[in-house]
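>> received
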Amino acid sequence: MTSTAPLIDRVTGSNFAYQHLPLERCLDDMADLGRDRLELWGIAPHAPVAWLTDAEARAIRDAAAHRGLQVACFTPEQVMYPVNIASPDDRLRASSIAMFRRAAEIAVELGAGMLFLTSGRGSEDEPRGAGWARSVDALGEITTHAAGLGLECVLEPLQRVESNLVVTAADAARMLTDVGASRLGVALDTVAAAAAGDAVDDYFRLLGERVRHVHLIDGTPTGHLAWGDGELPLTGIVDALDRASYRGLATIELFGDGHYALDPHPALARSMDAIAEACRPPAP
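>> returned
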């Protein structure tokens, strides 16, 4: 989804850091923070792909709409749980692909237009090309299914500790070429980019308009921290997004050491204030 609105108005609400609170608390907080769109993390008990029914997904959509929110992106959990579309284990790989196919169907019921993907990882003791080929095939199957449902997909490069496949902007560009799906774009995560040594400008130089979503988050350089708790250059990042004429959404993906989950609202409010300040034109 693209918009000419200022970046701060394109910062989505999300349930990242709300895993120990009811989803209703998250929705109330996002409305209180003035958000109108939501990136929904598909975790238990909020929206687990494994057992969420279509009716339950529609109920989430309706609960969000009641608060003036629209689910814009569905992001099933796929890093910490046993989900790996590039696994050398045939059963694990097949069940992982099936999970994403079901996630696409849930995204439709949520009213979301975007499904969030990662590349999985190959075994650490096999040639990288083997895992890469499995990921290409799996992403092709998933994106074809999602496209048939009218969805866009975005692929996020991960940190090296999370994947040995797509971890840099160059990896993402190569993967998009290999998959060859026009409705597959890239999600730029500022922490993963910093960990890989990529600048925001590198993403747009290599990928241009195929950067279709952003996780806008502080780090040291990792950690997924609230803005002000890390060391990443927020003003420089915002300026780079402006230079690239980026008009998509951006999500504050809070994790940290777990203390944000005790009460996420203050950290989110502080982050949004920091982004608003970074977006403000310099005084004449």
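>> The beta strands are 11-14, 37-42, 70-76, 114-117, 152-155, 184-189, 211-215, 249-251.
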